[in-house]
């Protein structure tokens, strides 16, 4: 098998070079960030080792980790806490999703300097609550009235935040007109021709949405950088202004959808999706209780894209700020376990996924939990080794050579 740096370079060979450099830089921060940026390595290795049961089958978001949960405003304008990235969504063994999440617990807590004994306790608790939720057979969801602890506080703060505050943070006044703030951190400038084409395309897309049609006009757009694993793909942000009330604005995210990196690792028949964007949106609709506002698809030039109202990156739990707050970490893990199982229950029986009764029986049979804990703990050690190999190559300039 090729070296870790070569596998990473090969996988990212079709990404945009300038923004791929940002991804490589972020992946060099620590082992947890490296894990986030190498979802493909995880599943390639998992398939090769064949260490976990291949049943039951479930819809999975695919790239589940500690920071793939967050708050967002749903299409009913209420705020929820849930899984929030479905780019790799696919039909696969349910424990593939769970093993990646548990690996991220070990890797993430290690990056915080938390002792392995504590990480084992938290991981064990996560698996136990995940299984218990499956066994109950009833999906749950998180909103301010049903959440507890830090997640409840987090949701309440988001409820208090007004849309115009987000607009103010992401825009600036340019000679009497409001435009996106090109800070070259989150937003980057676009070629004039591409910018014009994108704005015309989004104007047409808006006309297809009954909530936006003849109510909003696009006034600006930029390239958007967010996340880790998806850096280097095409992603744009649009500033739309309300026609009748020009003081009100809306931010719209348009993200390129590529094939799931898990596709080549599973020997499971998948639905014949109309596009990769349709796959992402379909899995998200199945697994979330309520989806983000404006969630839809579009095709621009030769690419498929997922469209939704832009959600601030600050709405993700920052575990680095919780380093010494064990009770808060434990509370968040409980919520994440409940939501992981709930997403699988909610999508049960759909196009090849196990029916609820199978998931209930699986949750009640705990024999598989030790295997997941052992595999995730072992793979977390592998991640640390792979990260060191990557870091040496990165510092040596391997990823800047063409």
Secondary-structure map:
Elements (H helix, E strand, L loop, with lengths): L3 H8 L5 H11 L3 H7 L1 H11 L7 E4 L8 E5 L5 E5 L6 E4 H18 L4 H21 L12 H12 L2 H8 E4 L2 E4 L6 E2 L3 H15 L9 E9 L10 E8 L6 E8 L19 H12 L8 E5 L2 E7 L16 H21 L9 H9 L4 H27 L7
Antiparallel strand pairs: 1-4, 2-3, 5-6, 7-8, 8-9, 9-10, 10-12, 11-12
**Strand composition percent:** 15-25%
Which runs of at least 5 residues are low in confidence (pLDDT < 50)? none
The main sheet comes to:
6 strands, antiparallel
Task: Please state how the strands of the largest beta sheet are arranged side by side.
Answer: 7-8-9-10-12-11
Q: What is the element string, with H for helices and E for strands?
A: HHHHEEEEHHHHEEEHEEEHEEHHH
Number of strands: 12
Helix content: 40-55%
Structural description of this entry:
By secondary structure, this protein is of the alpha+beta class. The protein has 13 helices and 12 strands. The strands form 4 sheets. Strands 7-8-9-10-12-11 form a 6-stranded antiparallel sheet, with helices on both faces. A two-stranded antiparallel sheet has the order 1-4. The chain has a two-stranded antiparallel sheet with strand order 2-3. It starts with a helix and ends in a 7-residue tail after the last helix.
């Amino acid at each position: 098998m090729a070296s870790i740096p070569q596998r990473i370079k090969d996988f990212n060979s079709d990404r945009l070079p300038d923004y791929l450099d940002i991804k490589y830089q972020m992946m060099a921060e620590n082992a947890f960030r490296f894990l986030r940026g190498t979802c493909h390595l995880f599943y390639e290795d998992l398939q090769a080792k064949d260490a976990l049961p291949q049943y039951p089958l479930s819809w999975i978001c695919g790239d589940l980790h500690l920071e793939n949960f967050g708050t967002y405003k749903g299409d009913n304008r209420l705020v929820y806490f849930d899984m929030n990235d479905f780019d790799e969504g696919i039909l696969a063994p349910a424990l593939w999703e769970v093993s990646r999440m548990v690996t991220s617990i070990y890797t993430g807590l290690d990056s915080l300097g938390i002792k392995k004994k504590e990480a084992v306790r938290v991981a064990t608790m996560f698996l136990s609550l995940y299984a218990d939720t499956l066994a109950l057979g009833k999906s749950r969801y998180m909103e301010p009235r049903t959440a507890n602890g830090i997640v409840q506080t987090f949701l309440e703060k988001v409820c208090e935040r007004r849309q115009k505050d987000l607009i103010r943070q992401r825009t600036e006044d340019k000679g009497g007109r409001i435009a996106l703030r090109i800070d070259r951190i989150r937003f980057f400038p676009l070629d004039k021709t591409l910018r014009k084409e994108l704005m015309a395309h989004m104007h047409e897309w808006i006309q297809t949405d009954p909530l936006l049609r003849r109510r909003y006009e696009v006034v600006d757009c930029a390239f958007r950088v967010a996340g880790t694993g998806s850096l280097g793909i095409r992603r744009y942000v649009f500033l739309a202004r309300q026609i009748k009330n020009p003081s009100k604005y809306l931010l719209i995210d348009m993200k390129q959808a590529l094939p799931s990196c898990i596709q080549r690792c599973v020997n499971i028949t998948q639905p014949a999706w109309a596009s990769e964007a349709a796959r992402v949106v379909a899995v998200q609709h199945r697994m979330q209780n309520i989806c983000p506002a404006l969630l839809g698809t579009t095709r621009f030039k030769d690419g498929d894209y997922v469209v939704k109202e832009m959600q601030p990156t600050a709405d993700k739990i920052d575990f680095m700020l919780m380093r010494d707050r064990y009770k808060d970490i434990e509370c968040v893990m409980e919520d994440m376990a409940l939501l992981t199982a709930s997403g699988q229950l909610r999508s049960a029986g759909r196009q090849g996924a196990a029916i609820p009764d199978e998931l209930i029986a699986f949750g009640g049979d705990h024999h598989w939990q030790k295997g997941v804990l052992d595999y995730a703990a072992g793979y977390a050690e592998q991640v640390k080794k792979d990260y060191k190999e990557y870091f040496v190559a990165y510092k040596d300039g391997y990823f800047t050579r063409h």
